[in-house]
Amino acid sequence: RVPICGRRPGAAPSPPPPPLSARNARPRRASGGGRRGRPVCVSAAAPLAMLSDDDASAPDGEERDECDPAEAAHDARRSASDEASEDNSQGASDEDSCDDSAPSGGCGEQRPADDGSLGTRSCLSERYGPQAVVDETFECLDLRAEAAQELQRCWAKFLAASGTKEAASDAIYAAWFEASPCLQSFFKTPRAVMAMRIMTGLQQIMQALADPAGLKVIVETLGFLHFQIEVTPPRAAIFRDAFCELMSMELGSQYTSLADEALRVTLNYVGGAYCFLRTNFAGRLKILSKSWAAANGKKLNAAGEEMSTVELAAEAPAAAKDKPKVDDAQIKVDIEGQEKGAAKRRARDNAKIAVPTTFHDMFRFNAAVMGLGSRFWFAEVLHSFDAIVRNVSNTTRLNEECDVLSLRLAKCHCDIRLSEYRSVMLSSLRSLIAKDWDEEHESAWDWLWSTTERLLTAILRKLPEQEKALAKLWGGLDDKSFARMRTQVYAIFFGVNPEGMDYFRQSTTRLHFIADKVITITLDMYKEPATMVNDLSALGLRHVGYGIPTELFAPFASAFVQVVKEFTGDRRAIEAFRWSMDLVSRILVRVITEGSTVVMRAINENSGKLLRRAIGCAPRSKRADWLLKVAVGTQSISPLEWAIKAGAFEAAEAILRDLLTIRADRDRYYYGADRLFERQPQIVRELGIDAPSLLPVLFDGLVWRSRLTENCQRRVIYFVKHLLIDAEGGFAQAIESVTELKDPKIVCHPVFALVTDIVWSRVAYIVFLYGKLWFLLTLVVYLLAQSVLFRVGAETGSRDTPFATRLSIFLCRCFVYGCSMSSLICSNVKRAMLDYRGGDVFLIGRLAFPAFLMDAQAACRFVLMLVLLLMFFTEPILSCLSAAGTDEDQLFSEFCMEDEKLFRVYSVLGAIGMLLYYFLLIDLTVFSTRISAFALVIGKILSEVGVFLTALAFIVFSFSTAVCALKQDFMPFKTVPEAAVFLLKIFLGMIHGEAYAELTEYPMLTGAVLLFMVTSIVFLLNLLVAQLSCSYGQTFQDLVGFARIKRGVVVVDCMRSLTNAKWQRFIDSLELDRPCVFGEGDLGFPGAICMTEPSSANPTTAETIRRFGGSTSPDAVWPEEDEEGKTSADRFETVELIVRSALKKMDRRRNVARGGGSTAGISSGMTSGMTSGTASKLDADHG
Questions:
Q1: Phi-psi sector, 1082: left (phi>0), alpha (psi -120 to 50), beta
Q2: Do 599 and 627 form a contact (C-beta atoms < 8 A)?
Q3: How far is Cα 140 from Cα 585, in angstroms, rounded to an integer?
Q4: Are strands 635-637 and 1089-1094 parallel, antiparallel or unpaired?
Q5: 3-state secondary structure of 221
Q6: Secondary structure (DSSP) of 543-555
Q7: Considering Cα of 99, then 103, then 107, then 111, what sign does the dihedral take?
Q8: Cα separation of 887 and 574, whole Å?
């Protein structure tokens, strides 16, 4: 008989194992040290079930910490207990040794434990005690229900007392770090990251206390992550005691003895599991990781991870240094040998076949050689095989990858024989790592594929039927059923988890939309698994930004399944929905867990202080990546972009300032501008749309000024490469994005002004001038035809005008109509058609006009086109051609007595056209910022003049009608129009004193005129002067800004017509590839323009480059910096933090002496004056 998870004969069956349950599980004895161990019940996870006995040895090449006295004591107790247990176990069968039905002593009674160690048997668990760390077996933790509930209650109180999870995790980290100085060398991960991981693991363990099988899977997964650390029972006991002491100190009397014993049992169980897993599985998993890296041409670092580019670059010089040197004689011999065998080498090279060097290429090659190249389902397995190998130690992730792979294989619709993949896989691995291949490699890879094949086979045959059943279920429900289902789902979910209402704050229609998406996703997982996995990864990363707790996904899925059961009795459909919903939940939880970095948590809090603290533990070479990329699978999200979209502007500002801060050590400079624009090439546009207030922060980070001056000049470096050039080498959209904001202040920033001026002065102005030459030519021709030559004919008369002059006028007007008018017609019609097709119109009443007419210059061109068309149809020369006949004196004449009225209309149109031509010349003011600013001021204050003219017209009309109502016979006021003209002349000062003398005969009329003069001249005219002064004063500060906006618009229009050759010559002339110079002999990095400015322009007294000594390793962390903008309140809180930390240490020593208590005794006087907000903030800032 084989005991399963320590179950006694006749006891109730244990909970069902997780998906990786082992069919061929068998008991095995713990090996090592010559001890006889009891049969061990194998874990329900597949990696434990498939491991053979010959993998029990611990991995080699790892150092053992010799300075821990607890380990020596533990070894002594272990050797003594081994001898006692060996004597007492003579004649006992394996079955009896695994049976826990033997009578035991009371709670806390000292006796030899089953594992051969001297421990304390607990009343809470039949196999694990609160004292000894059992490292020779790994079974299910049979913790009593009341003990689990009490421990969970104390854990919740501990989190509440800490204020936030971040503060609690930091306190646990500090307790463990200070528990033993000899173990501090194992804390290599940055503190913020390690604290977050500790909290995540403990939270999972506490939540799974009531589920032994689930707890075992979680502990097993965590144990696989600790293979690189030498976990021993004495070290586990140190961490256990430190954690229990922390709980006792923080909770005081609320921390009961039952909870303390339950916590010690649980931590002993976890620590023993880490030791057991490391002893039995580390060798096999290390073989898999190393051989897989070698098969793909990659290298692993000391931590078992793939080397980054920086690490490989650092390793290259060392390899070159160790390369053996060859003397000249040897080189000469080699050259002679090469010359003799040249023909043989050429023949061999021609016949040589390119041998694959990666696993994927070798697999395809071997599949073709073995006659299995037509198995197109191999591609699906290859797509997922890398993730399977990398996550073999993660039971949950391995199940997820196999479930997704089974969905992809189910869509192949062919005969799938998984054993064929095994043959090709092993042959490919043997070819790639032939030097290192041995029986252990063969066994490890065979074990891996056997586990994967069993998982795939178990679910693969069910998927087609489940997809049909689920599709039938959703297709058979009507709209009313779906509406009722959505309502019931949220009712059940909110009833079970009221805290979920804090995160589902949207409207009911939005919640129903989410429920509909869930229904669609569960079916699409069967139909399009590859697409849905990517979509779910992107959805999970968005939930990282939302700050959704992963604990809510399981209850939400359970509520959905419970509701679906009420709408159908088909077990197959229910199972299909449950399986798909479970897979979706696991993917989302994994993505959120992996994507919840310390940076994203700081962004969710919108705290610049927390973000600077989180990023302070990042390695130098990865600091920018922490701020710009959170990747999970094939999907990624930018923390900076999310902070901008979510409105967390304080965190976004902290990110920008950190990225654009220049840091340096002795070897290299670190500057995040390149990485920023590489990751977010449209960062200028994004900031302009969502966070315009952060644009000055971005531009400030792109300029460096020296604090030293020379000859009253200061060195200035502008890092403007990415504002000029995009990723493809073309013209960047930074200028266009900023000018679209119409912000006169941001365009005057030195960085943006420099970029605009350089492009304008070196490239754009030439293109702009070439474009205006044609317009200037048409203006000159129109001027000759309408004003110069026309005046000659008007003064001399038609018969006396020379024929050459008449012919010149005719040719000039033909040029205007044929060239200028036709080009205006083509351009205006084209733009109008584009606007109408795109729906870009504006309404005046019920009439829709194209949007391009909203621009003043474009509207002027459109009106000029209409004027020229009217001039063409009323052209007097064309009208006089028929009257001229064969008379040469009348040919091309425009003075026909019959068409005198038509000529007057034509002359008015010609005058209007002349004004429109000159109005279009305002574009040329862009050459001078000062003149352009003056022209813009005129346009800005024209609205005030318009209001004045409207008021004047109203007053003139009012008084003209009023005086006409008086009884008087004064000639200028006989009619309303005549009175209005006379009053207008009075306002303009065109009336002489004689007219006023005649008014004295009419006293009432005189009084009305005087009142009009006071109202219009004294009041209204002075009011206009005051309005113009105020308007000019408001726009004066922004004059240059508006001028630069106009220049930016012109630059963008000109760059669209610039050729690639001219653009490339312009870029080459800037020499952006040369390193900038920060000082004499101090070369920086490329991508900048170096200039000088007057030393008084921007006084700079502090060095903006932060230089550090010490180690220059790219993996090192920058030394701690003083936080910018630190106020006196922040400094006071820091002092309070230090004092409170010291008081806690004092209380800890006193608690050890008197066996309990809390920190309230000594620190109450210190903290009583603090508000609750300050105290909670101190908890969050602890450490």
A1: beta
A2: yes
A3: 25
A4: unpaired
A5: helix
A6: HHHHT--GGGHHH
A7: negative
A8: 102
Q: Are 712 and 764 in contact (CB under 8 A)?
A: no
Is the separation of the CB atoms in 291 and 441 below 8 Å?
A: yes
How far apart, in whole angstroms, are the C-alpha atoms of residue 993 and residue 1049? 54
Rounded to whole angstroms, how far apart are CA atoms 159 and 549? Answer: 15
Rounded to whole angstroms, the Cα distance separating 1064 from 1066 reads: 5
Place of tokens 């609160």: 130
Half-sphere exposure of 985 (CA within 13 A, CB side): 14
The count of other CB atoms within 10 Å of the CB of residue 452 is 24
- Pull the structure tokens for residue 265: 């049992």
Q: Using alpha carbons, select from 1013, 1001, 1005, 1012 the residue that is nearest to residue 964.
A: 1005
How many angstroms separate the CA atoms of 843 and 841, rounded?
7
Strands 847-850, 841-844: pairing kind:
antiparallel
180 CB-side CA count, 13 A: 21
* pTM confidence score: 0.67
- CA–CA separation, 276 vs 272, rounded Å? 6
**Distance of alpha carbon 165 from alpha carbon 781, whole angstroms:** 79
Structural tokens at position 89: 């176990």
- Return phi, psi of residue 663, to 5°: -120, 150
Sign of the CA dihedral 832, 838, 844, 845?
positive
Please write the tens of the pLDDT for every residue from 1122-1160: 655 455 666 677 788 788 778 877 776 776 665 544 433
In contact, 1132 and 1178? CB cutoff 8 Å: no
- 8 Å CB contact between 121 and 113: yes
Query: What's the one-letter identity of residue 486?
Result: R
Chain centroid, CA 29 distance in Å: 51
CA distance linking residue 415 with residue 413, whole number of Å:
7
Asked if residue 147 lies in contact with residue 122, where contact means CB atoms within 8 angstroms, the answer is no
For 860, list phi and psi in degrees, rounded to 5. Answer: -65, -40
**750 contact partners, CB below 8 Å, separation of at least 6:** 699, 703, 718, 1098
Per the rule left: phi > 0, alpha: psi between -120 and 50, beta: everything else, 95 is alpha
Residue with tokens 């309990």: 1156
The CA distance from 882 to 373, in Å, is 88
Per DSSP, the residues of 249-278 read HHHGGGS-HHHHHHHHHHHHHHHHHHHHHH
Where do the H-state alpha helices sit in 107-211? Answer: 145-162, 165-179, 191-207
Q: Could you give the 3-state DSSP secondary structure of residue 635?
A: strand
Q: Mutual orientation of helices 1160-1167 and 1128-1154 as an angle, nearest 10°? A: 160
Instruction: Name, in order, each residue with C-beta under 8 angstroms of 1181's C-beta and a sequence gap of 6 or more.
Output: 167, 1133, 1134, 1137
- Is residue 956 classed as helix, strand or coil in its secondary structure? helix
Question: Is the backbone of residue 729 left (phi > 0), alpha (psi -120 to 50) or beta?
Answer: left
**Positive or negative: CA dihedral 977, 983, 987, 991:** positive
Cα separation, 944 vs 926, whole angstroms = 24
- Conformational region of residue 163, where left means phi above 0, alpha means psi within -120 to 50, and beta covers everything else: left
Q: Whose CA is closest to 731, among 763, 694, 761?
A: 763
Report, as ranges of residue numbers, the positions in the chain whose pLDDT lies below 70.
1-127, 188-190, 192-193, 224-225, 227-228, 299-354, 634, 790-801, 882-890, 895-900, 1121-1131, 1148, 1151-1183
pLDDT of residue 1039: 82
- Residue bearing tokens 């009712």: 491
Return the SS3 of 1153.
helix
SS3 of 523-579: the string is: HHHHHCHHHHHHHHHHHHHHHHHHCCCHHHHHHHHHHHHHHHHCCCCCHHHHHHHHH
